[in-house]
Design goal:
alpha/beta; nine-stranded mixed β-sheet; 9 strands; globular
Length: about 210
């Protein structure tokens, strides 16, 4: 597999924020979002087998694992990795951009689907059929760049009758969290404000 980096840190996003977690960042992405903060994952990589990755994970000592990217579902070997992790008792989070079919992902894994807003420049790349494959434990994230993105995401939720854990994350350096919070409160929107707490803790250092 093409791996960009593996590291342990504090989970900074989703409903699992604050928990120690080991991250497996795979290389390669089919999208080019305007606000991407992991552009190094487009091309940087080294080869590892699934077993080598498992050895690193076992050594980390944490039960929570996130597979991210890039777009991790572009590599077919990832499905074997997910199965292996779950078989050994790990709780597995998969962060995906929603443009790749999630149908073959082990149903015990937790999908965190990042639905791209217009501000990303990639909103037309979403695969709507993925919505019907989401489970009650899965999470949906919208990165909000501006008021237009906010209104677009609000309409998307209503149009598709989305339920469950819905995350609104202010795009770093583009939207003040206070402003997004005020919009959510004013509209009585039933979503979770999703701050990247790892950036507050470690600033913008890589591998955290």
């Amino acid at each position: 597999m093409k791996v960009c980096e593996i590291f342990s840190s504090i989970q900074g996003e989703s409903s699992y924020a604050g928990l120690p977690c080991t991250f497996i960042r795979l290389s390669g992405c089919n999208l080019r979002c305007s606000y991407c903060d992991t552009t190094y994952a487009y091309d940087e990589s080294f080869e590892m087998t699934v077993e080598q990755i498992m050895d690193v994970v076992r050594g980390s000592g944490f039960p929570l694992i996130e597979i991210t990217g890039g777009e991790p579902l572009l590599q077919k070997e990832v499905f074997d990795l997910i199965d292996r992790l779950i078989k050994e008792g790990y709780r597995v989070l998969i962060e995906t951009n929603g443009s790749v079919d999630i149908g073959d992902v082990n149903k015990e894994a937790i999908i965190i689907m990042d639905i791209k807003t217009p501000g990303s420049g990639m909103s037309k790349e979403f695969m709507p059929s993925n919505l019907s494959l989401l489970k009650s434990v899965d999470e949906i994230k919208f990165v909000i760049c501006n008021r237009r993105d906010y209104e677009w995401a609000r309409e998307f939720i209503n149009t598709h009758s989305l339920k469950g854990q819905i995350l609104f994350s202010p795009a770093s350096g583009m939207l003040d969290p206070e402003e997004l919070s005020r919009w959510i409160i004013e509209d009585r929107l039933n979503v979770r404000l999703n701050l990247q707490i790892h950036k507050y803790i470690f600033r913008s250092l890589r591998g955290v």
